[in-house]
Amino acid sequence: MKIAVVSDVHSNLAALEAVLAAIDAEGVDELWCLGDLVGYNAEPDACVSLIAERVTTTLCGNHDLVVSGAIGMNVFASDAGAAARWTQSVITPETLEYLQKLIPEGERHGVEMYHASIRDPVWEYVIDDRTAAVCMAAQRSSIALIGHSHVALMYGYVEGTFVAGTAAADSSLPLGEGPFLLNPGSVGQPRDGDPRAAFLVLDLDQQRATWRRVEYDIARTQQTIHDAGLPRRLASRLAEGR
What is the dihedral of CA 8, 13, 14, 15, to 10 degrees? Predict the structure, then answer.
């Protein structure tokens, strides 16, 4: 079983299309999404439609919960709030209905999935060794997947040794007994200094995780942000990967 894992699409259609094309070339059996389909960028309906069409298992993230009305808009400030309010005002009833059906955690083929973390599937950021170790101690299975931080990360135990850190493009990790906690990075708004869209290939037969990065038309996404009247900072940060 070979699975592609994406997260934090954030209404970036150009990035999502590029990632899906790369995933098709990988020849995977299933595609999973760890949430935050909407927010920040300007093409929510098209992104949700593609996810609904292509993805086997989809979680919701904090932005999805805010836009769908499950969480109050007051939790967001500044650019995130402006984008969430705009998204809520323009999405179709079909997009809203799809978002409202999603939950922030799940499990498939013995792999746990959380938008943020096992301790708090909606809000907790797992970006340091200590938090990762605490979360791994609570895992029921050898592999858990998380998103939310927009950073491609690997945490786990290989032959008793703890390995941790950012996962560079095309880096891979053998998956033994574990446990392992893996973040594919973000499709629509990477924050690790690499502006390329990110995804993860999880090969359960070969017991290996491989992180991928894909070039996409950033200028196209920036133009849609400008055209929508969203904060200009949301456009400029895409080229910087932050």
Answer: 10
